[in-house]
Amino acid sequence: MPAQRPEDISGLIAEAFNANDPQAMLDLYEPDGILVTPPDGAQKVGLDAVAEALQPMFAAISAAAITMTSVLRSGDLAMTHADWHLVGKNEDGEPVDLTGKGTVVSRQQPDGTWRIVFDDPVGA
Known about the structure:
The longest helix is centred in the middle third of the chain and has 14 residues, at about 45-60. The chain is about 25% helix and about 50% strand. The radius of gyration is 14 Å and the shape is globular. By secondary structure, the protein is an alpha+beta fold. Strands 2-1-6-5-4-3 form a six-stranded mixed beta sheet, covered by helices on one side. It has helices spanning about 10-20, 20-25, 45-60; strands at about 30-35, 40-45, 60-75, 75-90, 95-110, 115-120.
């Protein structure tokens, strides 16, 4: 489901993690969208690179809670900040329990929906 407002993106990301549906998250990005990957801050540009970066995340995370904390909007651009909490297990079966503050910049599309331009999960 596409985001109808920039404020919807955080909830749709959480839904994608909770449904273990990386394609649903990938569908939120513009074709040239950028995902900043922790912990090194590497920038993954474009849908293929973002999809590759999402694979290990979705393999480890079984539940997500994301709460949007602010939105700044100007015309067809918006920047949102959110608090997130992800839980699951790593490839060794050890518990994963992560929290952070992220920033998403999104743009309104010609059809009125919103897609991610920049996604920095630790850049709040």
